[in-house]
Structures are given as C-alpha cells and as structure tokens.
Design brief:
single chain; alpha/beta; 12 helices; 9 strands; 41% helix
C-alpha cells in the first residue's frame, strides 16, 4: 500500500527494483464522473511508462469512486496512484497539493474530462529531448463536446518556439492551455507553490523565465468543452450574456492579479536574470497589473477612473491596441459591450 497524503490511496503496481519513471502525469479531476473512465483509459494507453497520479478535488459526485475502481483493476506498466483532497481546494491549490507527490522530472498535465492520444507522452518526451533549452510546452488539440462529438473552437496559433518577448509583442495575456501543458519540474521547484487561482498562465510565464517555450502543432489530446467543465465555469460560457460578461471580468481580475503576484515573486527569486530578459518580464508584469485595474474600473468605477489604466496601457507596446479600443468604450453605453 502506497500512502499518499489524501483521503484514500490504492496499491501501486510496481516492483521495488523498477527505476523511477521519468514522467509524472497529473490527472486532475473535479465533477468528472461522466468522463473519468475515458480519461483514465487514455492515460493507461500511453506508450511510455509513467507515474500517473489521479487526484479528485473533493467533488463528491462519484468521480473518485469510479477512478478508485478502475485503478484497482489496472494491470500494466504505469505506476498509478488515486487520491482525493480532504476539502475542495480550487484549481491552483489542487495543483500545488498534487505537485508535492510527483516524482518525475517531466510533468504532464491532464484533466479528468479530456482524452489523451496514446502517443502524447512519448511526443512530449521527444520534444524536450530535442530542445534541451525548452522548459515548458503545450500542443494543439482536437475539441470535442459532452458526448465526444467534434466541435469547432477558434484559438490563436502560436509560434512553434518562442521566448519572453512573444508575450510583450502579442499583448494577449493568455498562456499555454493547461490541459495541453507539460513542463520540466524545475519550473515548479525553482519557485515553489503557485500563487493566484489558476495554473496555466503562471506556469507558462515561469517556463518562459527559465528557458524557451514550445508549442507542438500536433494535436495530442481531445479537449472537451461542456457546461460543467472548469473552463466553462470560469468563463461563464453558459450564463446569460450580461451576467457572463460581468463574471468573466470579475474572474479575470482575480486571475490577472494572481498571475502578476506569481511572476513578481519569481522575479525576486532570480537576481541572476539577464537585464534584457528582466525588462521584458517587468513589462509583462505591468501588462497584467494594468489589465486587472482596467477591468475592475470598468466594472466598479465611474468612467473618468478608466483613464488611468487606459493611459498606462497606451504606454505598453502589447496593450496599445486594446487600450485604444477601451478608450473608445468611454464614449459608448455600457450595455453595448455586455455590462449594465
């Protein structure tokens, strides 16, 4: 019996003499009872032996019990643990909780409602081997709906390889998609637990601080979009328009400030960072702060209070277009852009 700091743990099918797996797959789930079987089957189907940690964030909907049953019946090359948190932690805190248990040098993220293609881990390992300076990567994906049906999702195409200046140049404060991410464990160990409520932006920026970022153009997962998904809930995709817009603004204020706090803390721990890269990181940090202030002002402040973030944004290369558009909103009724 392998004991993990969790409510429940199951036997790990391994020999004492076996080498430690190079890869840890973190299969994080919450209210995924309808999807966890397919997710786990796809994790078991990986062609590279892995440590697989299945962790349920105390959802209480049967996800943990289904995973427990599947892991108990598993016979195969992977080391598999299943556990659940004692209370609901939320996305970032759940991730921190599980990272304390992972032993691999490469960490592969996976959600309990997604399906990984069998070659996913092997492709990730090969990419890191071919690019020793890369510390974090994401991949393309195939989007599916609740019942596995293909759906069209538009997303910005990233360069295959990029550095910190990409974030300054592009001006969109979006990191690699968490469900597609993998990273070298130094991205976590170098800086410690994540700050803020979400993990993907913080990990993307940490990886960019330490090295190069990769975006694999090969789809490696089926990324599920459905009303109960974490991303659907976070961005209120299924709420009425006015309510959804307000909630997105409220949540992105929290996300941007949390990501900025994490990046600022990381910079304090890297006094050796080259000056040119530090300047770029500080610009990204300023962008996150400005965008949080701007969205909060739009939600809560009289229009004249919007001017501060707008003017600061016009001084940041990556935010100039967005800030100019926001200046135009000063002349429009709030209802025109989804707020009342």
């Amino acid at each position: 019996m392998t004991e993990l700091p969790a409510v429940s743990a199951l036997p790990v099918l391994e020999s004492v003499a076996e080498p430690r797996p190079r890869v840890s797959v973190l299969l994080l789930c919450f209210r995924d009872a309808d999807y966890i079987r397919a997710a786990l089957d796809s994790a078991f189907a990986q062609t590279v032996p892995c440590e697989i940690i299945v962790s349920n964030d105390c959802s209480g909907d049967g996800t943990f019990e289904i995973a427990e049953e599947l892991v108990a019946a598993y016979r195969g090359p992977h080391r598999v643990h299943v556990r659940k948190t004692e209370r609901n932690l939320g996305v970032s805190a759940h991730f921190n909780d599980v990272m304390a248990l992972a032993s691999g040098e490469i960490i592969v993220m996976m959600a309990g409602d997604d399906i990984a293609y069998p070659e996913r881990v092997a492709t990730i390992v090969r990419a890191f081997d071919e690019h020793p300076g890369a510390t974090v990567l994401g991949s393309d994906f195939d989007a599916i709906g609740s019942h596995g049906e293909p759906i069209q999702v538009s997303f910005r195409q990233r360069p295959q390889r990029y550095d910190f200046d990409y974030y300054v140049r592009i001006g969109r404060l979006i990191g690699l998609l968490g469900a597609t991410m993998a990273f070298r464990r130094e991205v976590y160990d170098r800086f410690g637990p994540l700050l803020g409520p979400i993990e993907d932006n913080a990990l993307s920026l940490r990886g960019a601080l330490l090295g190069q970022s990769l975006n694999l153009r090969q789809p490696l997962i089926q990324y599920r979009r459905h009303p109960g998904s974490v991303s659907g809930t976070v961005f209120a995709r299924d709420e009425p328009r006015a309510l959804a817009t307000r909630r997105r603004y409220e949540r992105t204020v929290q996300f941007y400030r949390g990501t900025a706090d994490d990046l600022e803390a990381c910079l304090r721990k890297m006094p050796e960072l080259p000056r040119s890269k530090r300047r770029l990181a500080e610009q990204v940090l300023a962008m996150y702060r400005i965008e949080a202030d701007a969205r909060e002002a739009i939600l809560l402040q009289p229009r004249w209070r919007w001017l501060g973030p707008v003017l600061r944004g016009l001084g940041q290369r990556g935010l100039r277009r967005k800030s100019a558009e926001r200046a135009l909103k000063l002349l429009l009724p709030r209802s025109w852009f989804g707020l009342r």
